Amino acid sequence: MAMSSPSSSSCRNDDPFKPLFLAVDKFFKRRPELESVCVEAKQREKGKIEMHSPLFYVACTVGGMLSCGLSHMAITPLDLVKCNMQIDPVKYNNIMSGFVILLREQGFNSFFKGWVPTLVGYSAQGACKFGLYEFFKKLYSDTVKHGHQSVIYLAASASAEMFADVMLCPLEAIKIRVQTQPGFAMGLCDGLPKFIKSDGALGLYKGLVPLWGRQIPYTMMKFASFEAIVEAIYKHVVPKPKDQCSKPVQLAISFAGGYLAGILCGVVSHPADNLFSFLNSRNGATIQDAVRNLGFWGLFTRGLPLRIIMIGTLTGAQWTLYDAFKVSVGLPTTGGVPAAIGYPIEHEEQN
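Now predict its structure.
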């Protein structure tokens, strides 16, 4: 008996291309729906800055400029008293007496001496510091694929601060001379030519090494500890993930993390801050002169309580202003997501 040929239906069931045909058919049936999802996604993303794009680094640079420049300018009176306590501790032996003496001898307006070089110098420094930190953080995380996050934070912040201090050093030198030598100058415009005349153009950078000694450890502590503290707050204190927290709550966490990081920064960088203030307050002063005058213990303790208060408040304000600016342009706040350095934070928060 002849074998019967397979039915057409069995041929269709055994067709190996059938799943492909069904998938293509399903795609075209759902195409309008998929197109509408894509349009909605594009509309949602419209106006947002892509992470690690050139515009992202521009935004971080502007945010850093505003946060550092404005915050340092706001605490000019505290900085003025702190510098005078470091230079002449016998006369300015505590915070309150420092304010009283300056008010009595130089008047209320003296509390704002040096605000222009402060604003200009720290705006330039903040622009380099925050913009380059984000750049180096991405660069190092891509280069060292399996590197520890803390090491990447430390290396990125140190690299950024080296360049930032080159911008800050001359203006900081003028600011200190204006604040600690009565009658030297009123501010930047008349202080700059007087400083160059007395110390030469290279004198503007004679404090660069002590400034690096102050600012690089400060910035390494500032960024690495901030990232760690904020991550710990989201992990152990806040009862819900970062992406479920409102923007005001996220900014409050940025301030708390910044304030705590600032306390650590102030302690670590204080000896170099004393050296830098001494060198720029006197013509021809050397590091040996500073150590001999201040004493080894004085390097670590003179003006430290005021500096802790000042730097804690300053650093908390800086991170709040910086993250507020980022939020205003559609970027996420800094920190709080463990693996956020290698790819966009928005992607991580959605998963």
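Residues 60 and 232 are 23 Å apart (CA to CA).
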